[in-house]
Amino acid sequence: GRRLRKKRGGSRRPACDDGDGDTMADEGKRQPKREPKVNVISSNVESVVFELRDTHLSVANALRRVMLSEVPTLAIDLVYVDYNNTVLNDEFISHRLGLIPIVSKEAAAFTSWYEEEEMEREGQELDDDALTEVEFTLSVFCNEDETRDVTSNDIQIDRRHPNITPINYNVADSKPIVIVKLKKGQAIKLRATVRKGIGKDHAKWNPCATAVFRIPPQVQINNQELSRLTLEQKQQLVDACPTKVFTLNPDSKEIEVEKSQLHKYTYDDEIVRKAESFDAAGAIVIREKPEHFVFTVETTGALAPLEIVVNALRVLKTKMAKLSRETDKILNANETAYNDQGYQMQY
Fold first, then answer.
1. Residues 87 and 162 in one domain
2. Where is the segment annotated Disordered (predicted)?
3. At 132, which CATH number?
4. How many whole angstroms separate alpha carbon 199 and alpha carbon 206?
């Protein structure tokens, strides 16, 4: 190859130099460590709304994806039908049973098939008393003239595990889930096996009805620039926003943000375009707040909303720890190969 020559009056810099004498790698090392912050806005038995701040978009999206696909829950996985002369075939009923949310507070006590495979790869043996599944039964016969609803309340749970039940199981003032309807002379008898799993394998193990996040808007209004507009034009600006986020102050005659409605803004930019039509471009600027995400998580009932978030963080932490270990192995192998053979291994 050609020999690099130093130019007169200049200096040789690394190929990844950013121009100020420091390499990009060195620049990256000086970046401050992120310290994400969480603020719970509202929480109830069905949903939780919380803010995640001071972190990257990739982290927020990773958390959302883990909540949907990798938080372990319990669900009916196998169905053995002993007798069925209802209007629904065996496969249809099995599918309906699988989609009944099962209370999964004790999911951590179960060992799933993918955990068994992981133990096998690491040379570990599964304990004989390890909990892998529980069995439900269902046996209903209709001998009345009126149609009989077979619901989740008719399922007989495993009495050794009284906390593992369908959601709202025999709860007063709570509507159970209908499985099938029977007319006189029809019956159904089956056994259902409940196992631990994750949403990545099947949607029946997904604990979330909804798991989304949005980036709240940052609004800047230059009322000095808007002061040359008439009251009618200002009202037209306010009315241009379909989500009714803006309001016209009757006292100051200035356009203001309705903070209680700001979360409804959908980045439609209608008010911005309307301002441009009045030759007031730049008077209203709407941007996304940097490193600020508002999550809404709704549960199917298998887990409490806050449990879903906390369990997802545990899974994400475990993944990062595994990535760190595997990276260290590769780096150590690289260093050993370099010292032993005098060259850097290529991957």
1. yes
2. 1-36
3. 2.170.120.12
4. 4
Higher pLDDT, 339 or 176: 176
| Same domain, residue pair 149 and 254 | no
Same domain for 194 and 223, yes or no, is no
| Residue 113 maps to a domain | yes
Tell me the per-residue pLDDT of 122-137, one tens digit each, with 9 for 90 and over: 788 878 788 889 999 9
Closest CA to 311 of 214, 205, 213: 205
Q: Is 43 exposed, middle or buried (0-12, 13-18, 19+ CB in 10 A)?
A: middle
Q: What is the pLDDT of residues 286-334, one digit of tens each?
A: 999 999 999 999 999 999 999 999 999 999 999 999 899 989 888 888 7
Residue 31 CB coordination number (10 Å)? 7
- Which residue in 58, 77, 54 sits closest to 66, CA to CA? 58
Is there a contact between 54 and 64 (Cβ–Cβ < 8 Å)? no
Which residue, 95, 99, 132, 98, is CA-closest to 114?
132
Number of domains in the chain: 2
In this prediction the pTM is 0.79
